[in-house]
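Cast an eye over this sequence plus tokens and walk me through the fold:

***
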Amino acid sequence: MRKLVTRICNFIFGKHKNNTLPRYWILATDMAIVFIAYVIAVVLVYFNDISKLNLIVDWKRVWLFPLVYLISFLLSKTYDGMLRYSGFNDIRKIFSACTWTLLFIVFSKWLFIKFYHPFAVNFYPPFTIIGYHYLITLVLMIMLRFTIRRLYNEVYKNVSNKINTIIYGAGDGGTILFRTLEQDTYSKYKIKAFVDDDPKRVGSQINTIKVYAPNEVMTEEYILKNNIEVLIIAIPSLDEKRRKEIIEQGLALNLDVKSVPSFDKWVDGKLSTSQIQDIKIEDLLGRQPITLSNENVSREICDKVVLVTGAAGSIGSEICRQAMLYQPKQLIMLDQAESPLYDFQFEMNNTVQFKEMKDRMAYVITNVKDPVRMREVFEKYHPQVVFHAAAYKHVPFMEENPYEAVYVNVFGTKLVADLATEYGVEKFVMISTDKAVNPTNVMGATKRIAEIYTQSRKGQTKFITTRFGNVLGSNGSVVPLFRKQIEQGGPITVTDRRITRYFMTIPEACSLVLEAGAIGEGGDIFVFDMGEKIKIWDLAEKMRKLAHRPDVEIIETGLRPGEKLYEEVLANEENTIKTDNEKIMHAVVRKYETEEVDGMIEKLQNELETCDPMKIVAQMKAIVPEFKSNNSIFSQLD
């Protein structure tokens, strides 16, 4: 019997299951249903009194239905869908086409009865046949599609190597996910249970699959007994804290945890199995999403020329993406790295939401240390807002290369800031770091000096500084390093088991940069709410769990030169003032006079020319007295 069904399916779908039935075949089948429905309707009406049946008259009337239904089907395109994937939209199309046809036939017959009775009698069937025909046609067309879909699923469904899966969420998201998986013949997931936090849903069933409370199935006993391997979180509106709890509970049970995206990220309002995504380490931060004051940000960016330095980097590129959403007059993306900037240009030019704005985007390859080229950029584009993200940031490298650290992070910033003042830039937003607070390394100290310089500038340009901690997934951060080490089989290297860091996601950090830039009035240093400190050792363990690689070893390698065990966000002499955004705080810092700072910078310039690391760092410590080197050759200068 199954062989017969398979042959029928091979005929319908073609020799290969990926083939689709031609559209005209579906239309022809629908028209055959219209004719068959008429015959059935006539038989039903005259079944009890066959003597009233007049075959000649009734065959004269048969033309009406195929003609009107054909026009309706062509207009509604009921034949346009793939039968194997028939769903609610197909039913809606069929119902609409058949109903409008019924109304047309009934209304036209009523008109003929009123104005030309003989035509209505001879060429229109009785209202009872019209009604029966409508119902039979509707039912048969819907049955055809769902029978084909069922046949396709039963014959071609991938029944081998299915993975036992739990869906967390029995609401709309979970139900839609279940239906999506059931309709996908290539789906590898076999749903064994639903889990939901809502007691009202517990005990109910979704297509014979029971809904359980978390404490019933999220146990080692249930997981082992039912050989559960995957947990899919299907509550798109779930708050971050509860989401984090569920993820960690799943990981503790050695489950492969996945999730579906939020409703607004579904393609054309539909969910597909390809959108089921793996849990990323960012999901374990458990931070609430940021709410921006779009009005403030739009006021500062819309219809203005915006320059972003370091535009090909992790932070700079995300600032560019978010800034473009606020419709700048022109966005100038500047970086010295040729290949990354080329890749970023390709991305921006081929992203749906940006590709229509190509004429507003310009890409510049240059170095922020080059005074001639940077002046040319300001002269050509006259930026009104500058986001200065270009900087060296790797602590160990900068500890070994203080000359380059000072040249780029201090004097590169000085050059861009001076040009901003000269060319009347409205706002200059500098991206700083928590390593500038009580710095223990060269990199952090250079950022602190850059802060001091920009905050001491006078004139119409408003200088704003933003400080935040480590960014998850940014170039050079521990996350891509750990990921690479896990892929290579380990070991994962952590400098010290006790070491902690603050973390933020790239989009979150850049959103706050835009907001801080919008609310800053000049001379501001904004610090971001980085949440709770995270132990790097714990981060490594979680990444190992996410990768399902318990065999990968985690080892301590010892603190690197200039590296802190614990990082701060605020310096000792600072306190903060709240802003309208609860995640952004205004740091109250010591004020520096322009002349005082210019003198210190001039001395640093003189020492820079010697290329002597000790002399350069000694002058840095003179500018930033709280700069105390840690585990470094420069500790002797303290």
Notes: Residues 2-156 form one domain. The first strand starts at residue 163 and ends at 168. The chain has 24 helices and 22 strands. The chain has a mean pLDDT of 82.
